[in-house]
Structure formats: structure tokens, C-alpha cells
Amino acid sequence: MTTLRIGLLGTGPWARRVHAPALAAHPGVELAGIWGRRAEAAAALAQVHDTRPYADPDELSAVCDAVAIALPPAVQVPLAVRAAEAGCHLLLDKPVATSVPEARALADAADRAGVASVVFFTARFGAEEGEWIAAQAAAGGWFTAHADWLGSVFAEDSSSPYADSPWRRAKGGLWDVGPHALSVLLAVLGDAEAVTATRGPADTVLLTMRHSSGAAGTATVGLTAPAAAAGVDITLRGAAGITTLPRRLDGPGPAYHRAVDALLAAAATGLPNACDIHFGLRVTEILAAAEGSLSPLMPLEA
Q1: CA 293, CA 207: separation in Å to the nearest integer?
Q2: pLDDT, tens digit (0-9, with 9 covering 90-100), for 169-192
Q3: What domains appear along the chain, each with residue ranges and CATH number?
């Protein structure tokens, strides 16, 4: 297997916890360098993983075959576009963008450059979850599905390292964990042909979808659930009965390792991965449509 030189853009909690360790340990990867918006953070993370920090992201892209990005979506888009234009394959974080024009511009840039892309949807690359998703998609015949993807990042008693994330606070669970729920439902039930959204408490949103298979899909997403109520559950009901998404037995690191595997394969073969930038664009389109259907929460008249 040819070693791919990958540069990491980002130094926040997700980069430190998942991206950098997985890239440094992957046998098919040379971690070529790290860039961050804070030079001291890039230097510290680079020292931990025996690579060098870069002061300019374009200088890092120039010496890489690919870039992995662990940055807010508004920051990810222009950097990923420039990296693609420099000929770098893309390992992106979700959501790829929080507006359709930005997501489409990124997809167009990747297409023009002919680079491979993978978006890291954790459930799609988890071992147990990935096998379950593939099996249920092959089985078909699903009537309804419901996903609960609820975090407590912004709950009153939260100690989450992501509680200081401005973009998550501004965009809420719809854009942070909504992509995860959609990545599973779309893979099993088919594309969402229609979507509406209703507000719940705080940032909680209920999505209702009609899928191309004819199934009805719903999802409740948010980042403000009490810690005791947080968690992930996805249930399918259909001709084969009732089945639920299996619990993950390991952390996100192994899933990220498999996402890197997927990028290596796409780069080597030229065949697109199911979770490429175009799938990321479609998720953004659905979330934007859902967001557009939301109206201010109005009290019901007695």
C-alpha cells in the first residue's frame, strides 16, 4: 500500500482526541504536518505526534497528498477548496458546510481537481454500526424509522470540551448531530424526497421525512438534553420486524481509522466512496431545507 502524506488542519479537542492520533498511527499514512489557527497549539500537537507545525495552511497542502480537516464548517470550506485546487484529496468533517452554496462550491472544486473525498460520519465508519447499516439497506422493506441523537453539550451540568464551540452554539444540534442521524437514515431508507422540521425545547429539532423507498423517517436531534436523557437510538420497523442500531463498542478512533482506509482506497482506485463530498452536499441540502421550514415556536391556543 502506497503511503499517503496527509496534513492535519485543526488543533481543537476533536483534532487532539481523534484525528491526530489516528493519522499518526495509521500504517498507510505519513502525518506530514499540522496547521492550526493558534500557532502555539499547532506546535504543541505536532510535537506530541513527531511532525512539524506549519504557519500557513497552503504551505502544508503543497507538501501533501491529502488533508484532513478538523475545523468549524465555515473555516473548513475555503481551506478545503484551496487544498483541492492544490491537488490534495480531502478527509472532511461533518457538516461539510452549513449553507448549500458553500457545500456545492466545495463539491465543484473537488470535481474540477479530480481529487477523492471522504466525510467522516462516525456511524457509517463504525464497525458494528457499519455492518448493521449495510445489512438493513440490503434487507429493505422498511416501513418507518426513528432516530434519537441527543447530546448534552449545552446542558446546564455539561462538562463537554465542545461547550465552548461558537459554531455549535449558533447552529445547534440540527447541524452538529443531525448529519449523523441523516447519514444512517439515508443509507437505509434512501434519499429524503421531502423534509419538515419542528422546534422542541432549547435547540432540539424534530425532523420528519418521506424517503425514496416510500418509508417515513423521523429524527430528534439536539445538544441540550439533560445528561440522563442523552444518547443515540435508531429503530427500524418493517416486513422483517424491528431492529435497532447496535451500541458502539469502541470510541471514534477506530472509526476514523476506517475513514482513512476509505480515503486511501478512493485515492488509489478513483472510485467514489459512499460518504464522499456529494453525499455531504446532499446532507447539507436536507438540513438547509429543514432549517428553512422551521418557524418561531408559537404557543398552542387552549
Answers
A1: 10
A2: 999 999 999 999 999 999 999 999
A3: 4-123+252-273 (3.40.50.720), 127-247 (3.30.360.10)
